[in-house]
Amino acid sequence: MKVIICEEDYSYIELVHSTLFKFAKVKGINAEFNLTTRKPSSIIRFLGSDQAELYYISLDLVETMPAIELIKEIREKNEKALIHVMSTDIVKLKDPELTQYKIFGQIVKTTNGSMRDELRKSFAESFSYLKANSYFA
Prior knowledge:
Blueprint: E1 2-6, H1 10-27, E2 32-37, H2 40-47, E3 54-58, H3 67-77, E4 82-87, H4 90-93, E5 105-108, H5 113-132
Parallel strand pairs: 1-2, 1-3, 3-4, 4-5
C-alpha cells in the first residue's frame, strides 16, 4: 500500500509520518511511504508516473496551490484513492466542496495525542477497506 503525505508544517509532517510508519510496522502492514512533502507540485509530478492508494492532505496549504486543487488532481488521476484531509480548522473539514471528491476521512490537527489516535484509526480503516475490496488479492 503506497502512502503519500502533503503538509507544509514541519512539525505536522513529522507527527503524521512517524505515527503512520510506526503503526504500520507494529501491525505488520506493508506500507510504502513513497512521498512525504511540503509541496503539492511534488505530488502532481508523482501522479504523472505513479499512483498511491492512500493520501493524507493538509487543507491548510497556503504557500503554493490550494489543497482543494491538489485533491481534484489526485481524484482525476486516481478515482479509487483513499484521501484523508487534515486541518486545524474544523470549518475547512466541513467544506461542502470536499464531498464531490469522495473524501475518505477527516482529521483535526492538534499537538496532543488525539491526532495520533485519529491517524492510527484512519490508517486501520483504510487498510481494512482496501482488504475488504480485494486490493491485496
